[in-house]
Write a structure and sequence with these properties.
alpha/beta, Rossmann fold, six-stranded mixed sheet, three-stranded antiparallel sheet, about 20% strand
Length: about 325
């Protein structure tokens, strides 16, 4: 949340308060010097009336605070706040290729991705539709856009790994699922984005770059998460010999970044379970909410009046008069 003012030039009036404060401090110093002219402190106690001491400073402080906050109110303060979107569609596209069983991310890439994706589903405002696409040798819509979070999370839990990585097809299937969502009351399509998590580049199906024009045509941006490290590897059993060999499966962040850039989305990288969770949290804040500017002058006025009322009350108690 940020604070700004519609009329910041009025804040110069705070200089007047600084002058009042300086005058008050100067007055207190002169009063003290005047009293010290008496030859005996005992005599002061006898001839000078009881003074309110520290209490009078409380009155002055409350009065100055009230005036200061009043000046801030005069500058018309505004604040920017996040508000949940009323309608939007988010398609989660999760890589289910065999490389996702790599253990460079604890406990595995796919296990960490599932946990973080389910947390993301819970963070998204309840009014938004969420769908799920999984992709490996092909891409499929596991859950059409829905507000039923339990259905989406159950489908995430059931994801299985297979050969191949069809990122381009995953974007196409996601765009098709989004197109099935009913339009808004104004007849326009509901805003939609794709959040795609993968650890590699396309190996089967439509090339990634060929999916960009269709996403742009549908006004759907793709936000990508490159998940994994450059040192990831998996053990693969060769079908011909039965021999088990270790295959390197480094993450391909550049290909995913190009997909995001081409569709107007943003790209992220994550090399651990915590990092992917953090990315999903950032995405939830960016995608699931809008920002609005609100006038908060009334709040400042309320605090200013409360401070001035306190100053008046304290003055009647301490000095039996209003300040």
């Amino acid at each position: 949340m940020t604070w700004n003012f519609n009329s910041p030039e009025r804040l110069w009036l705070l200089l007047g308060l600084a002058l009042l404060l300086a005058a008050y401090i100067g007055g207190q110093l002169r009063r003290r010097q005047h009293f010290l002219r008496f030859s005996s402190l005992t005599l002061i106690d006898k001839v000078a009336p009881k003074r309110p001491g520290v209490a009078r400073h409380v009155v002055a402080a409350a009065f100055l605070v009230g005036l200061g906050i009043g000046v801030l109110a005069l500058a018309e303060p505004i604040t920017t706040v996040r508000v949940p979107k009323q309608r939007a569609t988010i398609m989660l596209a999760i890589d289910t290729s065999l490389s996702m069983k790599a253990v460079d991310v604890t406990p595995t890439r796919i296990a960490a991705a599932k946990v973080s994706a389910k947390r993301f589903v819970d963070r998204i405002p309840k009014s938004l539709n969420i769908g799920l696409v999984s992709f490996d040798t092909g891409a499929r819509v596991d859950v059409s856009p829905t507000t039923d979070r339990a259905v989406v999370k159950h489908a995430i839990d059931r994801l299985k790994l297979h050969q191949g990585t069809a990122i381009g097809d995953a974007v196409d299937r996601s765009v098709e699922a989004i197109a099935e969502v009913p339009k808004g009351q104004d007849g326009k399509p509901i805003p939609a984005v794709i959040v795609l998590l993968s650890d590699g580049s396309t190996t089967v199906g439509k090339p990634t770059e060929e999916a960009i024009p269709e996403a742009k045509k549908a006004n759907v941006s793709v936000w990508t998460i490159a998940f994994g490290t450059t040192s990831g590897s998996i053990d693969v059993t060769l079908p011909d010999t039965g021999e088990t060999v270790r295959v390197q499966v480094p993450v391909d962040a550049e290909a995913l970044a190009a997909l995001s850039q081409g569709t107007g989305g943003q790209s992220y990288t994550a090399e651990s379970a915590q990092e992917v969770s953090d990315v999903y949290q950032q995405l939830g804040s960016s995608i699931g909410y809008d920002t609005e500017t609100r006038d908060v002058t009334i709040r400042y006025l309320a605090v200013a009046l409360a401070a001035l009322a306190l100053a008046g009350l304290a003055s009647t108690i301490v000095a039996q008069r209003l300040p």
